[in-house]
Design a protein that fits this description.
single chain, mainly beta, nine-stranded antiparallel beta sheet, five-stranded antiparallel beta sheet, 8 helices
């Protein structure tokens, strides 16, 4: 009897292992808990995908702002990202004192997270100019808006980026010996002494009495970058106090015209004190992306589609076989109901498109359009609030999905409630979209806080590539 029990246990373990050794692309995720997914699995419903341009979006109020230039991406072409920024006063009616003379001036741009591209070999040349118009007086800040400039504010500055390396700088303390201090990783661009002397220091004190008056005279700065190599996009943190213009100047001490003291003052650049706008431009000429945008419905379906952040390109997806799937399940009983126990959208990365430094997006978003054409979350990703419940909510961002699986090179979304609503005709598909999202913020509007991109396989028949796929576990209820 002892051996019979052991043989039976071995048989059960073997059957379990055999059942578990299926392609994960076809069986989907294991739900939380120990209960297996109940129902019949169908993974034959076609998912169509089409590359379309994303929309320009508001470029102010971001948690990080893009700055850079990509020239060496072999798939996505060229990208430019520049920044225009308002400069504020250190305090109302700030006085430079008697006979001030600028020693040096530095534009300080602290790095944020999620740098995309090459930091190892590429040198970047930065150009700083004064804006022609008062940025603080503007009303529209779309990411495709070009901000005109006039005077040069700095000579061209070339450097490599070190977004994770703190710096040691000289800290000038008024009336005391200078010291060294460690500052957060930052880009430091030397501005023209003559420019700062003319445009800020020599400005009539009445025009420095308020930020409004100051901005009307010193209209702000624009920074652009040119890559001398493959390039990349850095992100700047304007949310704290580290972004600024540091002005070091000598001023008269007492009544003496000979004795002078070096003084440091910071003019803050903060998204909390004035607008900071990003301009982004993509150039897809000569790429397969341009071909797909020009010919969106070819005779032979494209094998891959493209996703790029910074208001680049997104995918419009559709489920043309969903109605036929329902009819197939209901065969013999048109009054039967199809109950979706679980449904997953599996998005597979195209092989060979994740070569460093062009890593795939760490996260994608999945959303739909409502009847007014506005972007809204799927019901699976709509969290309940104090005033409304949602029993169909997946439960968390992780449960809804969209994060990149580095092992299987794919993204998976939970779409159970959305498909059920489409099948029951409670929701109409006015457009369903896949887009890149920032890793730390879920973006259904075009993301300007990430520079990443992904190339994904479509559901092309006759290939061995894993494409877009729906895994549907359902039960027929008669």
């Amino acid at each position: 009897m002892k051996f019979i029990k052991q043989d039976l246990l071995t048989l059960l373990i073997g059957l379990f292992l055999f059942a578990s050794c299926k392609d994960a692309n076809t069986i989907g995720l294991t739900p939380e808990g120990d209960s297996p997914i109940k129902g019949v699995l169908d993974n034959t419903v076609l998912v169509e995908s089409k590359t379309v341009l994303d929309s320009p979006t508001a470029s102010i109020g971001l948690v990080r702002h893009p700055l850079g230039n990509i020239t060496g991406d072999p798939i996505f072409g060229k990208t430019d990202a520049s920044l225009s920024m308002t400069v504020s006063l250190p305090s109302n009616s700030y006085s430079f004192g008697g006979i001030p003379a600028v020693d040096s001036a530095i534009l300080v741009l602290p790095y944020s997270t999620q740098f995309y591209g090459d930091t190892t070999t590429t040198e970047y040349t930065f150009t700083v100019k004064q804006l022609k118009d008062d940025l603080s007086a503007q009303k529209v800040f779309l990411s495709n808006k070009v901000w005109p400039v006039e005077a040069d504010a700095a000579p061209a500055f070339t450097t490599k980026l070190k977004p994770k390396t703190p710096l040691r700088i000289t800290d000038i303390v008024n009336g005391k010996p200078d010291t060294l201090k460690v500052v957060v990783p930052q880009l430091r661009i030397k501005l023209s002494n003559a420019f700062i002397q003319s445009k800020i220091v020599n400005l009539d004190s009445a025009l420095r009495s308020t930020n409004l008056k100051f901005a009307a005279q010193f209209k702000g700065l624009q920074v652009t970058a040119k890559a001398n190599g493959p390039g990349g996009v850095m992100f700047v943190n304007f949310g704290g106090t580290d972004s600024k213009i540091e002005i070091y100047y000598k001023k008269q001490v007492g009544t003496s015209v000979i004795e002078k003291d070096t003084v440091a003052v910071s003019f803050p650049i903060s998204s909390g004190s004035g607008p900071i706008a990003a301009y982004v431009k993509h150039d897809y000429d000569g790429t397969a992306i341009k071909e797909q945008l020009d010919v969106p419905s070819p005779a032979t379906p494209y094998k891959v589609t493209y996703l790029q952040a910074l208001s680049g390109v997104r995918n419009k997806i559709a489920f043309p076989d969903l109605k036929a799937f329902v009819e197939k399940v209901k065969a013999g009983n048109p009054n039967a109901r199809v109950v979706i126990n679980r449904a997953e959208l599996v998005v597979n990365l195209s092989n060979g498109t994740d070569v460093s430094p062009w890593n795939p997006a760490q996260r994608l978003s999945l959303y739909r359009l409502d009847i007014a054409g506005q972007r809204v979350n799927l019901i699976d990703n709509t969290a309940p609030t104090q005033t409304s419940s949602n029993p169909s909510y997946a439960g968390s961002e992780a449960a809804f999905g969209g994060f990149y699986d580095t092992v299987n090179k794919r993204y998976i979304f939970t779409v159970t409630a959305y498909l059920q609503s489409l099948i029951d005709e409670k929701t109409k598909d006015y457009g369903t979209y896949l887009s890149p999202s920032s890793l730390t913020e879920y973006n259904i509007f075009p993301s300007l806080t990430s520079g990443a991109r992904s190339v994904i396989n479509t559901a092309t028949p006759g290939t061995n590539e894993k494409g877009l796929k729906l895994n549907i576990y359902y039960t027929r209820v008669d």
